[in-house]
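Every protein is a chain of amino acids, and every chain bends into a shape of its own. Below is the pair of lines this work produces for a single protein:
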Amino acid sequence: MDSIERVAELLRARNAVDTLIADEINRPMTSGHLGEWLAFRIFGLTPAVHAAVAGFDGTFGGGPLDGRTVNVKWYLKREGLLDIAAERPDYYLVMTGPAAPAVASKGTTRPWCIDEVFLFEAARLEAELRARGVAVGTATSVREAQWTAARVYPDSNNPALVLDERQKGLLRLFATPAVPG
């Protein structure tokens, strides 16, 4: 029972932290809600009028993408998979933790980190996937070359969204801690 008691103790502590975060973001503490909250503030997005709008979470508020719809994703690990909505936005803005193969999770963790950010043009990505015969939907397999081309942080291969130093500094606050050693 010692393990069960320890896990119960840790969950009480986690629930307390989750409550503090929920108080800050005014939504339940999940990667989806927190990811959207962060994206709205870091990338200057305007939230959709209603939280339940199908296919997108908001719009870009300025620059060359002004007014374009965006679906925000935060994956705690980058495993090469992307959930593609049936109702297509103009863009997917994807924040990820460390890159990892899509394998069994036994003995691993999913840290709440942002190590990379990607911007995919939804119509183009979907056309490329369908041309390859890839089933599009939940957990869609996206090639590494497509992730590389879509990267906007920490280095940028995608000129559609250029981050300034303030945005990069805010993202660095969420980087995976370096492992001593």
